[in-house]
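Name: CRISPR type III-B/RAMP module-associated protein Cmr5
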Amino acid sequence: MRSKEQERVSIAYEFVESVKNKEIEEKYASLVKKLPAMIVHNGLLATLAFLKAKSNNGKENEHSLLLKHILEYLKKANHLKDSKYDSFIQLVNTESFTTERYLHITREVLNFAVWLKRIAEGELKDDEQV
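Structure predicted for CRISPR type III-B/RAMP module-associated protein Cmr5:
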């Protein structure tokens, strides 16, 4: 049986590999490097709202892809029934959603974000390496 940490690494690696050789690889790598700090300084909900606001409707960009990856991770970690932004917002707005649960999910995503960052630093080209 795999540990939670092994699951996080596996999922993060899968997501980073899916970005390799895409047009947005460098911008995605740069954004992922900032993700842990964004979550710590702004909170998870504000970070997801920022990514959603910066997403191009219909056209994939680094913000929409990172948002998709975070939401897919939350689904795989059994925090969401599906990987839709609206589902997360609905979850947060339910009466049964506690501060403790929000903090737990934030810690989960922060731990995942650290692995995304580490793997992206080793696997992806970014703006600073050009």
